[in-house]
Write a structure and sequence with these properties.
single chain, mainly alpha, Growth Hormone, Chain: A, 19 helices, 80% helix, disordered N terminus, disordered C terminus, transmembrane helix, MFS transporter, transmembrane, MFS_trans_sf
Length: 435
């Protein structure tokens, strides 16, 4: 019976595989540039702080765009939103590869971020609507794409970056163009939602303390995460290929613990205690990088190990948002994505300034402190998280239960961050409901 279910999951319409392939390429984007950061700095005569703007422009535009993706998709439909996002990624990735200056690449990465926001906000909804085998089958497909993309991005970046720093950008453009063509041809036209999302809905949602608390926690966590991602490659002093393999190992751990480790911890210890532990351990690893920055192997080991706790954090923070949010899931996701990516966008820029004014140790220490502050902020929202965990355990018939069925519309924007995480949380919630 389990074998039959597995066969059903992977016997999908061609449109599902087309969108899943696009998801793989999209999730490659976060780690793709890491192996080529030192090469960009050297060959374009740019400082590390200037190169860090590749993350800043990409993530800040993604953050702001998160506020509008629901408004756009509810008016033009999921397929058109998806196609628009893919087209923007193809164009701006190719332009980044053609650029001859760091400022040009930074600008084109901003356009790439806009396309990515439109794509990731609708891709899961499209897979859910098109997949056979129900909701669970769609989630498995999405998680497989997520894991493969996160792990393969740095490896592809390293292999192509060893030829030229332009290689990763052209590689993404070509792969996304294939995905765009396949999606346009194979995916049927999707109907427009019956209800349009108000433009200011995500901003209004931040008036709810529980959602704002989780958003600020994620902002502080992302500060440490993108400090590590943006500056750890420099003290390693490795080639593009070697850096690619380091971050490939990091991505494998991130994907594995996001999909398997985080749900197990949540069920065993609860959301809040699991997050306290994972965030604290992540802060310790970043602090160790800051203290032992001059030791290449210490940095490599800490970076790879951070993939495990980052996977747990990414899953549980996104799940926590959905557990405590008093608004619709797409709106909550957009509001949360906006706040958390602000931290991810500002951190590399601030880290660059710290390096310019002091030394490379400082941004890692500051990043570790930021993550610890995130633990303190999270602690102020312990009660609603504990209540939500209890409601999930009680099931839909328990008193005060907040468990809800997840329709395709509900999850349209839920996985609106590059690291996924919420798919398994949604799936588990549905399992609890049907016990």
């Amino acid at each position: 019976m389990a074998s039959a279910a597995g066969n059903t999951i992977f016997k999908q319409p061609k449109a599902v595989y087309a969108v899943a392939f696009a998801c793989v390429v999209s999730f490659m984007g976060i780690g793709l540039v890491d192996p080529i950061l030192p090469a960009l700095s050297k060959q374009l005569d740019a400082t590390p702080s200037q190169v860090s703007l590749l993350f800043t422009s990409y993530l800040l535009v993604t953050a702001v765009a998160m506020l509008f993706t629901g408004w756009v998709s509810s008016r033009i439909g999921a397929k058109r939103t998806l196609i628009t996002g893919l087209a923007l990624i193809v164009v701006f990735a190719a332009l980044a590869g053609l650029s001859g200056s760091i400022n040009g690449i930074v600008g084109f990465r901003a356009g790439w971020g806009l396309g990515n926001a439109l794509f990731i906000a609708t891709s899961l909804a499209v897979i859910v609507a098109s997949a056979s085998g129900g909701f669970a089958g769609a989630i498995v497909m999405y998680e497989a794409a997520l894991g493969l993309g996160i792990a393969a991005g740095p490896l592809l970046g390293g292999l192509l970056g060893n030829i030229s720093w332009r290689g990763p950008f052209f590689g993404v453009a070509v792969l996304m163009a294939i995905a765009l063509l396949a999606t346009a041809v194979l995916l049927d036209k999707t109907p427009r939602p019956a209800q349009k999302t108000p433009l200011l809905a995500p901003i209004r949602a931040l008036r709810h303390r529980s959602l704002l608390t989780m958003g600020i926690t994620a902002l502080l966590y992302n500060w440490g995460f993108f400090t590590m991602l943006g500056y750890a490659p420099y003290p390693m002093e490795l080639s593009a290929v070697q850096l690619g393999f380091v971050f490939f190992a990091w991505g494998l751990l991130l994907a594995f613990f996001s999909i398997t480790g985080a749900p197990w911890l949540q069920r065993k210890f609860g959301t809040a205690p699991s997050l306290y532990g994972a965030l604290s351990l992540f802060a310790v690893l970043i602090l160790l990088i800051g203290v032992f920055t001059d030791n290449r192997w210490a940095v490599i080991v800490c970076v790879i190990a951070s993939g495990a706790v980052a996977g747990i954090n990414n899953t549980l923070t996104t799940q926590a948002v959905m557990l405590v949010s008093p608004v619709e899931r797409p709106v909550a996701s957009a509001a949360y994505g906006f706040v958390r990516f602000i931290g991810g966008g500002l951190a590399p820029y601030a880290a660059g300034k710290m390096v310019d004014h002091w030394n490379i140790h400082v941004p890692f220490v500051v990043g570790a402190v930021a993550v610890l502050f995130g633990v303190l902020v999270l602690a102020t929202g312990h009660r609603p998280l504990a209540a939500a965990d209890a409601a999930m355990a009680a099931g839909p018939h328990g008193e005060g239960s907040t468990a809800r069925a997840a329709s395709a519309d509900d999850v349209a924007g839920e996985i609106a961050d590059e690291f996924g995480g919420a798919p398994d949380a949604i799936d588990y919630e549905r399992e609890v409901q049907h016990r």
